Amino acid sequence: MKLQGNTALVTGGRGGIGRAIVARFLKEGATVFAADLSEQGSLAAHDNDGSVFVRMNVASEDEVKAAMAQVLETSGQLDILVNAAGIEIEKTIEDTTLDEWNQSFAVNCTGTFLTSKYALPLLRAATKSGTTASVINFGSYDGFIADPGLAAYCATKGAVHALTRAMACDHGPEGIRVNAICPGYIDTPMLQSFFTGEGSGGDGKSIDDLQQAVRGVHPMRTYGTPDDIANLVNWLASDEARYASGQLWVLDGGLSAQVQQMKL
Q1: The model's pTM
Q2: DSSP track, 38-98
Q3: All domains of the chain in start order, with CATH
């Protein structure tokens, strides 16, 4: 088991991707704290998976500090931080309210900042044994290119990409590796919400038609699963990735490698 003896904190740990990461970490022998707004999270049910639930709003400084204190008191260490909490608003900037804009940045950017800031003392302590600690942020392929109607989301993910590089430069000398995973279309509650939302450009098409159309524009003719993301997160968290830092790891089935499909 690659993570035996390690302690991890996963924000958004009760969401689609977060749950898959938590499950993979547990399988690899880690002690895992799953931080989210509720124990149920964005999925319909919660099973007792062996993780420790931490109620935390990533945009609240007090709640983040309390969560880190709980991790320290319960486990005495933190080796891995995964900043997977995020929200998506399907609007152009013209239709986005200031409150919606601020909320997007509060969760996607400020949440990553606050959680990382207050995790750093614990992560720094973990490196004293000669191993590295790992921070894994969540960007998006939308931080490089853009889907229509996702202006605030795209802006926040571009910011997370830049923050990831800055953190890697600042804290690499301390033995703390920082990377970002940049997913494309992943089968999560957020993706299903996109299919039914105004940003999908559905034009009255059925959900099945929209899903098949999305699969069809990918070179691999499918979109990803939370387990696909968890596999990469697990590697970046492990000692096998000891020399990997400051990188933006795109996982999108080849979508962003191709030119825009011509519509004949």
Answers
A1: 0.90
A2: SSSTTSS-----SPEEEE--TT-HHHHHHHHHHHHHHHS---EEEE---------TTT--H
A3: 7-185+225-251 (3.40.50.720)
